[in-house]
Specification:
By secondary structure, the chain is of the alpha/beta class. Helix 4 (about 80-95) crosses helix 5 and helix 12 (about 310-320) packs across helix 13 (about 340-350).
Length: about 625
């Protein structure tokens, strides 16, 4: 028989367990999530010790299932064996005449197409790295991104020929070899690639060509979106690829799935989908560019079961005209980030029982979250177990100074429940931060020292998050997208969400502008109008007064026909902030928040002069 004291302790333990369970209905899910993360970490560590890469996984899949569809693109199907042979041919073009040597970086400048994948696989096979250039960038930004990569070879799509030609003199100064993905090249100082590739052998390449690679070696340079300046190249190592791939399996992707990518492959979310397909051994349906009108037709055509998304993409899909066959598809899972709660609700109501898995993370980050409970609007949960195994915190942040708040001993302070704060995650050997390529200054900006004790080191995500009373975590804003006005912090995305509730406003980009004689920045919104709708200033005024506190109401409105966005649908703010609200410098309609007359009135030169001189106080 059990001793009486052991029985007592067992009863106490059972009571405590039941109390925790009833207090936290997500207890089992919380434990399962951390257990899955620990298992994924152990798996990645094992691969690191044996130097087993994503490429090794791909080559195993080629042997195991050579004829299984790997890539579906337009009306073409490429098997695993096709991909292996085509990437061998691409690799041999790079090796020809010793053009590319082990450890070199090659910049890829092309849209979504299978060739992007053959090039990357081919480069890894010969022990090289690829820099993924955004195909929308031009001129100064294009040359900046290329230069940061350290590459001496550029491969560009034929349709991007003119963009390359624009920076060709600068490239030639650096003795860069430029390939155009064409059979013939119409410009001197550029070489054709496809003709060389068609003549190259498809025989396997020696593993010795990549013998120097470890899982710590860079696999790709992926650039930040550049919403607040020139893009920065984040180092994505081979071990990071495994971590990304494991996150997809944790989200529920299986070997039987067909995964659809219409987001750019040069973007983390797009490339993550491709890496996941290799890890799972399933099939990727690839589209050259996202199309809201064709999206569901593509899903039906390829029998898609999993889609990758970013928030704005989901909103675009919700804004398409309703169709009788909206729920006629096989999509069961949507994985991505940035979907608003209202869009989430509407999406599943309209398009059927699609399980949405919201993921939080950054290309260069060392920490991620997954909304494994399905709580609409949340990015994950804050639990003791997760924080203990994968140290992170949400700390108080001074948005005016752009720095964390510290106590009298110089250490950071955790934010209270319900209070937006800066998310930071501990940098360690188990959770490293590789930084940005050839940019020590920007890399150091992301390192936060002496957070909870002297000498510790944390990664500064640059994101404001909030933990509610039920321990759900919500993304609030980017630090750069938060401004201070009237002594209060204003979250731009929250203001934009309120403004776009108006029927007449389709999109809103909210930011802060400097007003002479005033502390902080006054709110301004650049908006586009909904089709067949006219701008009703009195109605807009009534709406913002009803739903926004005085300090968060945009003092100025600007109407444009379209908003400038990055290739991943993020609003560009820098130029708008610089242009401000001066009617002398723009032709767009401008409006001023007139509290006295309870209206948004046209912003004339006289009103502008009165505001900037302090005659009109705002």
């Amino acid at each position: 028989e059990l001793p009486i004291n052991m029985i007592v302790w067992m009863v106490i333990a059972a009571v405590v367990f039941l109390a925790l369970l009833f207090r936290n209905p997500h207890f089992f899910q919380d434990v399962q999530y951390v257990r899955d993360k620990i298992q994924a970490r152990r798996r990645v560590l094992k691969y690191k010790q044996t130097n087993y890469s994503i490429l090794d996984r791909f080559l195993e899949a080629v042997k195991a299932q050579p004829h299984k569809p790997f890539i579906l693109f337009n009306d073409e199907t490429f098997t695993y064996q096709d991909a292996d042979e085509l990437s061998n041919k691409a690799a041999r073009v790079f090796l020809h005449n010793g053009l590319v040597k082990e450890g070199d970086t090659v910049a890829l400048f092309l849209r979504n197409e299978p060739m992007f994948l053959w090039l990357w696989l081919g480069l890894v096979k010969i022990g090289c790295n690829a820099a993924f250039l955004n195909y929308n960038i031009r001129s100064k930004s294009l040359f900046h991104c290329f230069s940061r990569s350290g590459a001496k070879t550029l491969v560009a799509a034929e349709e991007l020929h003119n963009a390359v030609e624009e920076v060709l003199p600068s490239l030639l100064e650096q003795q860069v070899t430029v390939f155009i993905l064409a059979d013939r090249c119409r410009t001197g100082n550029m070489e054709s690639f496809k003709d060389k590739m068609s003549q190259a052998s498809s025989e396997p390449l020696s593993k010795d060509l990549r013998s120097h690679l470890t899982l710590q070696s860079p696999a790709a340079y992926i650039y930040t979106s550049g919403t607040t300046g020139l893009p920065k190249a984040a180092v994505v190592s081979h071990v990071k690829l495994w971590s990304l791939a494991c996150s997809m399996s944790m989200a529920g992707v299986t070997s039987e799935d067909v995964l659809f990518i219409s987001l750019p492959l040069y973007h983390t979310t797009g490339f993550l989908g491709f890496i996941s397909v290799i890890e799972r051994g399933n099939t990727l349906a690839l589209r050259s560019k996202f199309s809201a009108s064709q999206f569901w037709d593509d899903c039906r055509k390829y029998n898609v079961t999993v889609i990758m998304f970013i928030g704005e993409m989901m909103r675009y899909l919700c804004n398409t005209p309703k169709k009788p066959n909206d729920q006629s598809h096989k999509v069961r899972l949507a994985i991505g980030s940035g979907v608003r709660a209202d869009v989430w609700r509407y999406f599943i109501t309209r398009f059927g029982n699609v399980q949405i898995k919201e993921v939080y993370g950054a290309t260069e980050g060392n920490f991620s979250l997954l909304n494994y409970t399905g709580k609409i609007g949340a990015v994950g949960r804050d639990t003791f177990l997760n924080k203990w195994v994968f140290p992170y915190a949400v700390i108080k942040f001074d948005t005016e100074k752009g720095t964390p708040l510290r106590d009298s001993s110089g250490l950071c302070i955790e934010a209270a429940k319900g209070e937006p704060g800066l998310l930071v995650s501990e940098i360690s050997t188990r959770a490293p931060f590789a930084g940005y390529v050839r940019d020590l200054q920007q890399t150091e900006k992301k390192r936060l020292h002496d957070v909870f004790k002297k000498g510790d080191l944390y990664f500064n995500t640059g994101d404001l998050l909030c933990i509610d009373e039920d321990n759900f975590i919500y993304f609030k804003d980017r630090v750069g997208d938060t401004f201070r006005w009237k002594g209060e912090n204003v979250a731009t995305t929250e203001v934009a969400d309120i403004i776009t509730l108006l029927d007449c406003i389709k999109e809103a980009n909210v930011y802060g502008v400097e007003v002479p004689g005033n502390e902080g920045r006054a709110g301004m919104a650049t908006v586009t109008l909904s089709e067949a709708q006219r701008f009703d200033p009195a109605d807009v005024f009534k709406h913002v007064v009803s739903f926004l506190p005085a300090y968060a109401r945009p003092c100025f409105l600007r109407i444009q026909s379209s908003l400038d966005i990055t290739s991943t649908f993020k609003h560009m703010k820098v130029k708008l902030v610089e242009e401000g609200f001066n009617p002398n410098q723009m032709t767009d309609p401008l409006y001023f928040l007139d509290e006295k007359n309870k209206n948004y009135v046209p912003l004339t030169v006289d009103i502008f002069n009165s505001v900037t001189s302090g005659k009109i106080r705002i």
